[in-house]
Amino acid sequence: MPDIIQLLPDAVANQIAAGEVVQRPASAVKELIENAIDAGADKIQLILKDAGKSLIQVIDNGCGMSLTDARMCFERHATSKIRKAEDLFAIRTMGFRGEAMASIAAIAQVELKTRRHEDELGTCILIEGSEVVSQEACSANTGTSISIKNLFYNTPARRNFLKSNPVEMRHIIDEFQRVALANPQVFFTMHHDGQEVYHLPSAALKQRIVHLFGNNYNQRLVPVEEETTIINLRGFVGKPEFARKTRGEQFFFVNNRFIRDAYLNHAVLTAFQELLPDETFPLYVLFIDIDPGKIDINVHPTKTEIKYQDEKSIYAIIRSAVKRSLGKYNITPTLDFDQENSIGHLITPKPFDEIVQPSIAFNPDFNPFANEKKSEREIPFLRNTNDYNTAIPRNWDTLYEISKKEETLQQEMHAEKGIPVDEQEITKSSERQFFQVHNRFIMSQIKSGFMLISQQAAHERILYERFLQQLQNHSGVSQQSLFPQSVTLNSSDFELLRELLPDIRGLGFDIREFGKNTVVVEGIPADISNANEHELLEQLLEGFKNNLAILKLDKRDNLARSLARNAAIKTGVKLSLEEMNQLVDQLFACQMPNLALNGKPVITTFTLNELAERFEK
What we know:
Layout: H1 10-21, H2 25-38, E1 43-49, E2 55-60, H3 67-72, H4 100-106, E3 109-115, E4 122-128, E5 131-138, E6 143-149, H5 156-160, H6 165-182, E7 187-192, E8 195-200, H7 205-213, E9 221-227, E10 232-238, E11 250-254, E12 257-259, H8 262-271, E13 284-289, E14 295-296, E15 307-308, H9 311-328, H10 341-344, H11 388-391, H12 401-417, H13 424-429, E16 434-437, E17 441-446, E18 449-454, H14 455-473, E19 478-488, H15 491-506, E20 510-513, E21 518-525, H16 533-550, H17 555-567, H18 577-588, E22 603-607, H19 608-616
Parallel strand pairs: 1-7, 11-13
Antiparallel strand pairs: 1-2, 2-6, 3-4, 3-6, 4-5, 7-8, 9-10, 10-13, 11-12, 14-15, 16-17, 17-18, 18-22, 19-21, 20-21
């Protein structure tokens, strides 16, 4: 029997490795930018076409490569970062495995141009599917320029699994933001299809956060800084009032490397305990500087998971540092009976010699009973008990005659109609009546007892089914705004909006693009009244991302659910009798009136037997 185990060809091995390293265009962007940073570049340009499917180009002004290094970098496990096994426990560079360039070259058409500072000519290498097409000297700028064209061109099955351009672009933006936050000293630019998406000059960390996420973040940040023998912690956390319902803006960096760690994330959330609304998450950008020998970063192919020697101590340091910063900058509520900082500076006591005694002026001739034609209701309250006898109004014994006359009149009216007085409550119960309980529930009597309806859950169900039908039929009606508003979003949300724009217009929004990361809202759905266009659009996108992360809904169902929750009447809103009638009628016209959007019941009934058992007990 012949031997059946053979070594794989390099091209096949590289394609298999590419499945772990390069999952989508964003993976290639991450690897190339990190290589540029390791090369010492302080200016990096990222150029994209078709969300990286057609072109990914990274240009840097780093140290460049020699002819031999330029050819060697495309070999598997070829790296300049480590020399021996012990180096794995002292890594401070971004990459070290030597698999990225080989994997990218196996599934794309790659062009590399590079030149060192001391060389007069550079090197140009063309590779397609791990095969070197050409290698020659060329004129090139100092540094490296690498272009990746037609990603997954030779693996069509992988290319077919790529998402739409807006979705892939959002993944690229996420990776770009992480690298840009970790390196605020580096000047970054990003262009997509000829338009500039980011222009990030070298700046401090706070300015980098503002440049990435918007000017409104300037007032949202609280600095965090702590130095210990275990770790050094620095960065910023967001104020509790600006917490969001998604975890998108949460960044942990260990030795300038982005990581995901649920354990450390819990430490931050614990520091915000009792300061955040339910189901909201704070912003944070935190950097941990730790001895590389005390961590292991070689535990995941994407290098986003790390093992620590002393997790509990790191947890306690992060929790206490964040909590102390929130208290130091007066974020946590305080109550000081001795002095209140907010008003203490306004109270300036006067010297004793400036105190002026109050004076009282009165008219001794004033008589409130001088005018005898005044009605009894205009008589003021008694000022002096000595005037008790003279101030008693006359004919006081006729005070209850009005109420007696009204009661007699009602009895006569029921007698004329042949209805006994004892049965007038029966006539009222035959009509449908609703009562609002604590501005939260709607109560109505039924034959077997009574029912309670959650007004918010009921309205969410009504709007959800209405919006879902509008999305299917593209029948949403728009209410035009008298003064259209321009809304500026961060790059990730803007790409998400562009992806959802056809369906959002189907709901009744009248939106058009207006420059970089900006749209103009000229109309909102007619079913929504008294809404702020900016807040409504942001809440819609935020709810969509939250549902996408938790429920994995399809796009239209997600949009209808998100808009319904944001547009529905909330708990605490007082409703008129007509509004309650209309709400109940629309609820029972729904396909699933008993089920709320969160899967809980909308209606709860109580029978007379249940009530009788409670009172008998």
